[in-house]
Amino acid sequence: xxxxxxxxLSADYPLEDSRVVILGVPLERTVTFRGGPAxxxxxxxxxxxxxxxxxxxxxxxxxxxxxxxxGDLDTERSLGEILGTLEExxxxxxxxxxxxxxxxxxxxxxxxxxxxxxxALGKLQLLVLDAHSDLRDEYLGERISHATxxxxxxxxVDGLLIVGAxxxxxxxxxxxxxxxxxxxxxxxxxxxxxWLSLDLDVLDPSLCPGVTNPEPGGxxxxxxxxxxxxxxxxxxxxxxxxxxxxxxxxxGVSAITAxxxxxxxxxxxxx
Length: 271
Ligand SMILES: [Mn+2]
Hints:
Helix 3 (109-121) runs parallel beside helix 4 (149-156). The chain has one domain (15-270): Ureohydrolase domain (Arginase, Chain A), CATH 3.40.800.10. 29% of the residues lie in helices and 17% in strands. It has an eight-stranded parallel sheet, with helices on both faces. It has a two-stranded antiparallel ribbon with strand order 2-3. By secondary structure, the protein is α/β, with parallel strands linked by helices. The chain starts with 19 loop residues before the first strand and ends with a helix. The structure holds manganese (II) ion. The site of manganese (II) ion (MN) has 7 residues, from loops.
């Protein structure tokens, strides 16, 4: 038997036969508080094997989806090169009719994702689930950073909504992007494909402590699942899951939560 690298649960389809494609991007370049997201893709894959592939919520099984795991993008390059390669990868997958699922990595990966999806489709809206607004124009002298990613990604698409934010730079509060979870179905544009960016810190840190920048007062696990289910009436073309920091997750429960949320998201959106 040929040895096989670690892959996500049930991701045993070859690329050409797959519908949903997992790609790890262990990017950790502009992290400013506490580190670890480079370890996240492996931690999430490892944690996924502790879970069942069947969802009692969607009443479907991951093994029926057609899941492929491409492994990780090489991140030993400049930030610009990494984001450029990611953009090409996502664009190619979306053009081929696949649904990419990107495992970050720091939140900056979303920029490469939405640029790629927008290039493939010509139109796109971005939904971000995140404790932080990430709307700064620059942070510590950088225009491309985990703290500016919603601003930069928002500039690359035709619509931006942020759910779950509770950490703001004062003047941002008047920006039109912030909506409560229950307004999601009305606020999204039915005519635009959606990219979903799930920053794990949108969850309450009591549920998911292993993130780079924990922020009290977050969403519950079932509220996040509720957001996935609200998206079933829309054309969601891909998603990313970012900011898991395994070194701050000694119990391992945050990586398991991340893996379980991925299973539920994939089955709710494409099962
Ligand atoms: Mn965040």
